[in-house]
Amino acid sequence: MSVTDAANASRTRRVRAPSRGRRLTQALVPYAYLSPTLILLMVLMVIPIVMVVGYSLMDAVITARESHFIGLGNYVEILTSSKFRTALANTFWFVAISVVAHMLLGLGFAMLLNSESVSAVTRTVFRTLFVLPWLLTVAIIAILWRLLLNPNGVVNAILSGLGVVSGQHEWLADPDIALAAVTFINIWSGYPFFMISILAGLQGIPKDLYEAAEVDGAGPIRRFWSITLPQLRPIIISMALLDVIWTSQQFALIWMTTGGGPLDRTEVLSTFTYKLAFSEYDFSGASASAVIVLILSMILAFFYVRSQQVRE
Where found in the cell (predicted)? Predict the structure, then answer.
């Protein structure tokens, strides 16, 4: 090979091979597209979380001119507080009953809408009626049920006519019934999400499985336990974990119906934290309570991500 040919070959390799600066630019292009989202996450999530964690380790933040580092003192005070334990117990009761009822109602209504024994017109009408609560905002749901459960409302009128109750009952102001009433409202407003998701799962189950089981002599109950539930298990687990996360952070519905009362009977972690900050102006304690709620939510989110990974 001549000297000229060697020089041309070397020049060609330099032209074809991308420069170091171009490789760096190509590597940074994806991050440039992600930068607006990353900046928003940093400003709206990361920085506030870091600030709240910092406030939880200080005393008299915001309300005093000088704050001092007290370590885990706020956490000890919150965890040993009787109001916090009451809010935690109410939250557990509220979440457990709501999630179980959402699952059972959603599964029952989904199977009804998926049944071939119901005509198409009837399924369409029921589908519209069943999904209606999910279309309403939390504010409308709270106002609607406050009117229905009013002493002069429809619920008292119907139950009085049936002889179940006597007089005008204050459902949301009765310490013995308020938490159950709020839980019922949350169940009514949340079951359509389960219903729609399970209905989609039912429609994705191959009919060949049911036909083969019927040929083998399996009855409806046997087909439900051996085919329907195993096929729906991933959907039910995912939806249940999501519902636990959402229900445990429910604030607007409780605040607009009972405000955490009466006598703290409907106090949950979200309303407890809100009152600490904006009623008692204990921003340090509220920050510690918020961090505890964040840790619990992260634990639930971890299990949800694990369930999704197993499903995939």
Answer: Cell membrane
